[in-house]
Amino acid sequence: MAGRVTEHKHVRVYTINKAKFIRFIILVLLTVAAAVCLIRLAGRPSQYMPGEIPADALAIYFETGRSEAVPWYYLAAVDRAEKIPFDQVSRERALVIALWLTGIQSDEELPGLLKGYNDDKAFINRAVKEAGRFRLLNSIYENKLFPIPAEYAYTFEDGFGDRRTFGGERTHEGTDIMAEKGVPVLSVGDGVIEQIGWNMLGGWRIGIRGRDGVYYYYAHLTSYEGLLKKGNRIKKGQVIGYVGDSGYGPEGTTGEFEPHLHFGMYTGKGKNLKAFNPYPFLLAWNDFKHSK
Q: What is the CATH number of domain 154-290?
């Protein structure tokens, strides 16, 4: 009887390295999340940055929007959708646009209201997209206070970019608000103190990073209010100091110019701070105060 040969098959057993598997799953999830974010960002309109819209045009949009009870960025969006040169932006033109948008309450109403102004689908789509590009500027514009209380006398004008010579040839990076020495200075919004103390050009100054990301700069103070220091949280309307004439010399220098508040607004941080013109915003905040 022939012998029977039995073959034993070797079965390969695969094992999974749990740590490597978990890392792989996490990597896949992160890749998917990043792709989703990129898709969303690609569909989101890029934002207009501070300084990108000329101050004169902003002032017209702000003032007309307030007087006609129409959000200012809708007026600006129509101009951008029609590619109107900035030097042709005017109150008269803004008033015409505002007439078609009277009573608007939300973005959803914009297409229907614009049909009466220009019933062109491509134009309307552009205008809606442009309106979304003003969200950053609107976050700076809204919910702010003028830095000097209404009960005190003050004057201001657009001096941004004016020539200055102390400390070398340079341009003026803010708006000077002329007021009596000792007048309280208010924080225009909520924020956190990033800089405080003596600065040769600014004298006793304070820099506050607003919740909107803007760096707000208050200079030439005669003194601070309370024991303020870096990292302190500041509330809108909080007194942070008092108008003075400090600066343009070593610590303690005063009397080199008339008392005033130098008010500046900047994007960026540290050495990358970039000034933009605060004048149209100050005009708007001043109007808010006196319209109540």
A: 2.70.70.10
